[in-house]
Amino acid sequence: MSHMPLLQATSLPADAVEVGRIADAWGIKGWFKVQAFSSAPDALFAAKNWFLLPSEKGAKQFTGTVVLPVKQARFHSDTVVATSPEVADRNAAEALRGARIFVAREHFPKTDDGEFYWVDLLGLSVVNREGVALGVVTDLMSTGPQTVLVLGYEVEGKEQERLIPFVDAYVDSVDLATKLIVADWQPDY
């Protein structure tokens, strides 16, 4: 018998952003661990409702989009844990394992100047000061003290990868409106 909590079906907001997934149950009181996709999961903490989609692979405990009201989300050592009034016990929390978590963009905390959400950088084109195209941001990696942009580009039809530290020393500007990042970087670095 499934212990899937009865969550209200809904549709994904147009401005929904995937911010993590439910990793596993935590403790016996219905708390669950969350694997956050960003080094600063502020959006997870700020939103009172998370929108869940089933995991892409494995057993589906639910279909479509459901809304998960969040009572509390916080750091516990190096992971994020959360609780919902709809998730009563460990079995219910386990039933959510693998679910993809989306948050409406309107619930993201405002960023300071020079701060960006990772999701906003994905898909941006990167050129150097001379206007040479360096690639498109396909991913970001956290290497401890700094974030690294992972760029995809092609050489003679083959997909290549280029890494650029996302720090002021190398990144001159980020323009979300024009989807362009200018970097002090040469193609042969």
Side by side, the strands of the main sheet go 1-5-4-8-2-3-7-6
By CATH, the topology of the largest domain is Elongation Factor Tu (Ef-tu), domain 3
Report the CATH architecture of the largest domain. Beta Barrel
Helical element count?
Answer: 3
Number of domains: 2
Radius of gyration computed on alpha carbons: 19 Å
Specify the biggest β-sheet: 8 strands, antiparallel
Terminal CA distance: 57 Å
- Please state the average pLDDT score: 89
How do the helices and strands line up, and which of them pair or pack?
Elements: E1 8-10, E2 16-26, E3 31-36, H1 42-46, E4 49-53, E5 65-69, E6 72-76, E7 79-83, H2 90-95, E8 100-104, H3 118-121, E9 125-128, E10 133-142, E11 147-155, E12 158-165, E13 171-175, E14 180-183
Attribute tags:
45% strand, 189 residues, eight-stranded antiparallel sheet, six-stranded mixed sheet, SH3 type barrels, Elongation Factor Tu (Ef-tu), domain 3, mainly beta, 2 domains
How does this model look, in words?
With 189 residues, this protein is mainly beta. The protein folds into two domains: 8-107, Beta Barrel (Elongation Factor Tu (Ef-tu), domain 3); 118-183, PRC-barrel domain (SH3 type barrels). Helices cover 8% and strands 45% of the residues. It has helices at 42-46, 90-95, 118-121; strands at residues 8-10, 16-26, 31-36, 49-53, 65-69, 72-76, 79-83, 100-104, 125-128, 133-142, 147-155, 158-165, 171-175, 180-183. Strands 1-5-4-8-2-3-7-6 form an eight-stranded antiparallel β-sheet. Strand 9 and strand 10 (133-142) form a beta hairpin. The longest helix is centred in the middle third of the chain and has 6 residues, at 90-95.
